[in-house]
Amino acid sequence: MNHPDYAALEADLNDLLGPRGVSSDMRQREKASVDGARMSPIIAELLPLGVADLVAFPTTADEIAAVVALAVRHGVPVTPRGKGTGNYGQAIPMSGGLVVDTSRARTIVGIDGDTITADAGAPMNALEQAARAEGKQLWIYPSTVHSSIGGFLGGGSGGTGTIAHGSNDMGFVAALDVVTPTSGGVLRHVEGDEALGYVHNYGTAGIIARATVRLEPLQDWRGLYASFPDFAGSLSVLRTLGRLQPAPRLVSADTPHITAQLPPDDAFPAGRSSLRMIVDASLVAEATAIIEAAGGRIEDVREGPGVSSAISVLSYNHPIEWLQKSEPGVYFHVEVSGDALVDRIDEVHAVYPGGMLHIEAGHTVPIGMLAGIYESPDAVYDGIHRLNDLGVGVHNPHQWNVDFRLAQTVELAAVTDPAGLLNPGKLNPAYAGPTKGAIR
Question: Are residues 334 and 378 in the same domain?
Fold first, then answer.
């Protein structure tokens, strides 16, 4: 269909969802057509990249499926959206069409043994709260704790995850219910490796309507806040702390300059490098001894259900985001990994002017976000190759193309979306990024 009839689609969506479930209002359309892409100066130079013609707000997984079916019937492109916490344009509707905002589909279906099932719009912190009530916790815990489960799984990078289990494509997903243009409005249930085909590809092969993810027994977590006179002190203990057993949920550290940009907290003393841990209560004394033996000091130890959330939201790319807010238009970042982040930190920092690292103890090796002063896309890409030469794995976040399991996604989408209606512009088979050694 060369000229989709948006008026007819809007009428059908109104019949399905009611007048509050669909909008053609320009303010709503613009709001649904942006994410955090301004965090990337490379992408920011290209914005805006597209505006939705319509926005739908389904409230259940079945309604998500029905909305997609209506759009397909009218030949309208469909871009899925969670809570818009992505940072690199994956939820921007480059071809216009319909944005399916899943954030109102928040039902938590229930817990069955070591899994929890929820509709796509359920926030991650709500899943964690439901799990805690049953003596369990999420198998991994993200930095964007307010993001929706569907957006988190369908979006870009794996995020913080946990030291024990890695990122969200490493066993976290038990099953998905997805809708595709060829499924006729019926949810398709997929499990295990088949479910992985719909993770991290921005809905280009199928849109996640409901997810089942893994849980584990609840631990008694503490939030441990420490500081060192300099970043070298934090680096000296990061890997040791990350290898404690039972594994901490997170070990995260920042340079003194980045620390100074974080939200005000007495646990972030001026002029010092902050180190933060989500650590099992049984390990507080051991972690304290390691930190103090290396010249650090404990600023605070906090407990309660909000501990994980408070520290996780200051991990992954969030400290760099605070840095960018303090000096708008100055900094960019790349995702990095490897022991060179500790062993060759001075060389790593020197790759980009104003280089500063946010670092975390990763599942196998340290991971982090390297910030630098933005000059040009070419300077960013040249720096990526220099980092590779130092033994640093790099993932370039300054693009919106699917780059996780790209070949498999292209093959799957040829079957599930032969007309190319799902999130057009995000699945380029010829894409070859300037990086190697991706962190996933």
Answer: yes
Cβ count near 360 (within 10 Å): 23
CA dist 216 and 131 (Å) reads: 9
Contact 121, 148 (CB under 8 A): yes
The 8 Å CB, 24+ separation contacts for 288-291 are 288/224, 290/237, 290/240, 290/241, 291/226, 291/237, 291/241
400 belongs to a structural domain? no
Q: Do 173 and 281 share a domain, yes or no?
A: no
pTM of the model: 0.93
Q: Are residues 196 and 304 in the same domain?
A: no
Q: What DSSP string runs through 133-148? A: TTTEEESS--S-TTSB
First to last CA, the chain: 39
Are 328 and 233 contained in the same domain?
yes
- The CA distance from 136 to 140, in Å, is 12
Summarised one tens digit per residue, pLDDT across range 234-253 is: 999 999 999 999 999 999 99
**Domain enclosing residue 20, as ranges:** 6-101
CATH number of 385's domain = 3.40.462.40
Rounded Cα distance, 373 and 380, in Å:
10
